[in-house]
Amino acid sequence: MPESSVRHDAIINAIMANAGRSTLAFAQAHADRWHGTAFWFNDLIDSTPDSEVISQYLVTAAEVTRYDLGELTLRPELCEPVGSAEKLLMTDFADGWTVLGDLGVAVMPTAGLHAHGSRKGWSWATDEITDGLAARHEDIARIGAEPLPAYILGHDVGEPDGERLQAVVVGQVARGTDGHVRWDSTVPEGCAGAPVFVGEELGDDRLKLVCVGLVLPGGKQNRIATFDRIRTAVRESAAGRGAEPVTAPAVDPGPEGPEAGRRPSWWRRKLRKR
Predict the structure, then answer these.
(1) pLDDT at 256
(2) Model pLDDT, residue 176
(3) How far is CA 192 from the centre of its chain?
(4) What is the mean pLDDT of each run of 10 residues along the chain (274 residues)?
(5) Is 173 domain-assigned?
(6) Exposure b/e, 225-251, CB count within 10 A at least 16 = b
(7) Is there a contact between 38 and 153 (Cβ–Cβ < 8 Å)?
(8) In which domain, by residue range, is 117 found?
(9) Pairing relation of β-strands 166-175 and 269-270?
(10) What is the number of domains present in the chain?
(11) 191: closest CA among 216, 151, 156?
(12) Within a domain: residue 258?
């Protein structure tokens, strides 16, 4: 098997092991439009060897949140007990999101989502984009004009029934002449707002998985809103100032690199189309 294929598979394995349950498909309810992908993000406020203080948000592209009634698609593995919910309707949907300046990004504190599940007798079982996965300034600075293999973890709109299965979309990112990091080709419908990952070489056949940010809507060459700016903006926003941090036990990150974990049975792969 070619070395590039082995590397692709290793990174995809790492994405699914560490972030497979981080994404949610959503759309405007009762309307075949404004399909998007959101993901869970744990903003690390403080940490000790025994505990972490976090503020938790859903994150997506602001452009696909501007309507009154939203519908989240809940995959069975995101709920405990499994399969306890399928759809979640949210009224005043646009008002629940805080738009982060001119980044094209919106965030929603997740306290209301947890409270809803508790009232219905179930709880969320998710992965999150954590402080260790979310890119920092130095990670973004390493992305230049030379294209890098990259991976969108999103929910496209299936044909012909519109099913919102999760897919890994394989492509490339590079820094454009305007200074923004961009996706190299067409983004499938429904994947706006989805997280974008790269694998950084560490030597000795090791890779570091990094969530660059999220892909914004667009026809092609979509801009990536990068996590170095998202992290700062969310803390300075009304959502960040009003969030109630939660203290949780420190989590063992497990094995470093793409070798951690296996693909769940609900995973499917979508190769890029040029």
Answers:
(1) 45
(2) 93
(3) 10
(4) 74 95 96 94 84 90 97 91 82 96 96 91 94 95 96 90 89 95 94 96 82 94 96 89 70 45 37 36
(5) yes
(6) bbbbbbbebbeebebbeebeeeeeeee
(7) no
(8) 3-250
(9) parallel
(10) 1
(11) 156
(12) no
